[in-house]
Structures are given as structure tokens and as C-alpha cells.
């Protein structure tokens, strides 16, 4: 068979395979993942809320503080933009990190959503700012129907013992904290984290 005939055969086979493949609406590759955890290899389901990402071209767009006489810091510009764009109040945002690329002068600011002063592990946002303009933003913030109490029902020592028992791992004295975790049923649960 000539190389051209082989290429033609492959070209005709590829679309037919794609057309014949049925889409499974239950599969959620972008938001749900499984991980093997600990020596026992238990399977843990991981959920990442659906995210959005928008770009605003090389010139960017104004943020709510851009009408002021003085230029806002990238952190303040990003925070006010998220408040406006996502309809989130300032007390529901906590800055995780930020940096400025000295070569491009683009500032990247990273935030987490929080409730009751406790951060949500899987609800994050980022904003790129240059010359007092927003170039892009991405977010996986949530609007939960229910947020768990900020008081844990399980004591830290009991949570450690339960995790050791389930995973077969041994606690290494790394600091334990509290974080919320957004579930795929529009609820936010309180978790002990290591």
C-alpha cells in the first residue's frame, strides 16, 4: 500500500471512531478525581469545583478601584475585582500569595474563599494585573446551600487516630489545621488538615 493510501485509510478511520464513541454524561473528568492514599492504598475521591477563566486582552479592563486618584496595589486591585466580578464580600476572601514578574510587570494575585474565618481548600481564585488593569482572572468559588459550623465535631486527636486507621499511615507531628472543603452537593464541610 502506498504511503498516500495508508494516510487516507487512517484519516477515514479516525473520524469514524470518534463519531462512534458515545459520551457518558456521568463522567466528570474536570471536577472529580480519585487518589490512592497511604500504605493501605485507600481510594479518596477529590472534588474541584468547576472553574471559570476569562482574559481581557493585552490592554486589560478597569477594576473597581481604578477611578481613584492614586494607583491601587495589585493586591487591592485584584481583591476589589473579585468582589465585584463574583459578588463576594471582602470578608469571604483571603489572599494566599502574590508576586510580580519583573520582566513583564504582571502581578499575579492568588486568593481563597472563606466562611466563618476558615478557608475553603478547593475554592480558589487568581487575578493577573498590569499597569492598574486586570488582564485575566480565574476562579472556582462556590455558592453553597449549607456551610458547616466552624466548631469541629471531631477532636483533633480523634481525627488523627481515624486517619491513621483508615490509611495505614503514621502521624508525623506536622501541624494540623482546620479547613472547609466544598463538596459536589453544594455543601461545605469542616475538615482537619495536615
Question: Would you write up a description of this structure?
Answer:
The chain is α+β, with helices and mostly antiparallel strands. It has a domain at about 50-140: Nuclear Transport Factor 2, Chain: A, CATH 3.10.450. It is built from 3 helices and 10 strands. The protein has a 5-stranded antiparallel β-sheet with strand order 3-7-6-5-4, covered by helices on one side. A 3-stranded mixed β-sheet has the order 8-10-9. The longest helix has 18 residues, at about 5-20. It is elongated and about 55 Å long. One of its GO terms (biological process) is proteolysis. Keywords: Hydrolase, Metal-binding, Metalloprotease, Protease, Signal, Zinc. Pfam families: FTP.
Descriptive keywords:
194 residues, alpha+beta, five-stranded antiparallel beta sheet, 3 helices, metal-binding, protease
The CATH topology assignment of the domain at 52-139 is Nuclear Transport Factor 2, Chain: A
Average pLDDT figure: 88
Helix proportion: 10-25%
Strand portion: 35-45%
Give the secondary structure arrangement, pairings included.
Elements: H1 3-20, E1 32-37, E2 42-47, E3 52-55, H2 74-86, E4 93-101, E5 106-115, E6 118-130, E7 133-139, E8 146-147, H3 156-167, E9 177-182, E10 187-193
Parallel strand pairs: 8-10
Antiparallel strand pairs: 1-2, 3-7, 4-5, 5-6, 6-7, 9-10
GO biological process, one term: proteolysis
InterPro entries: FTP_domain
GO molecular function, one term: metallopeptidase activity
Summed up, what is this model?
The protein is α+β, with helices and mostly antiparallel strands. The chain has helices spanning 3-20, 74-86, 156-167, and strands at 32-37, 42-47, 52-55, 93-101, 106-115, 118-130, 133-139, 146-147, 177-182, 187-193.
Amino acid at each position: 500500500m502506498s504511503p498516500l493510501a495508508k494516510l487516507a485509510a487512517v484519516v477515514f478511520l479516525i473520524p469514524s471512531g470518534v463519531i462512534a464513541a458515545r459520551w457518558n454524561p456521568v463522567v466528570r473528568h474536570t471536577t472529580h478525581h480519585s487518589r490512592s492514599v497511604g500504605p493501605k492504598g485507600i481510594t479518596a475521591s477529590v472534588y474541584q469545583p468547576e472553574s471559570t477563566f476569562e482574559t481581557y486582552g493585552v490592554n486589560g479592563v478597569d477594576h473597581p478601584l481604578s477611578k481613584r486618584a492614586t494607583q491601587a496595589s495589585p493586591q487591592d486591585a485584584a481583591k476589589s475585582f473579585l468582589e465585584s466580578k463574583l459578588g463576594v464580600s471582602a470578608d469571604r476572601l483571603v489572599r494566599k500569595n502574590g508576586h510580580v514578574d519583573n520582566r513583564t510587570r504582571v502581578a499575579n494575585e492568588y486568593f481563597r474563599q472563606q466562611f466563618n474565618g476558615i478557608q475553603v481548600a478547593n475554592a480558589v481564585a487568581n487575578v493577573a494585573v498590569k499597569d492598574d488593569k486586570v488582564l485575566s482572572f480565574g476562579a472556582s468559588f462556590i455558592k453553597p446551600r449549607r456551610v458547616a459550623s466552624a466548631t469541629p465535631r471531631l477532636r483533633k486527636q480523634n481525627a488523627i487516630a481515624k486517619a491513621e486507621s483508615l490509611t495505614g499511615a503514621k502521624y508525623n507531628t506536622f501541624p494540623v489545621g482546620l479547613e472547609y472543603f466544598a463538596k459536589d452537593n453544594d455543601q461545605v464541610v469542616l475538615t482537619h488538615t495536615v
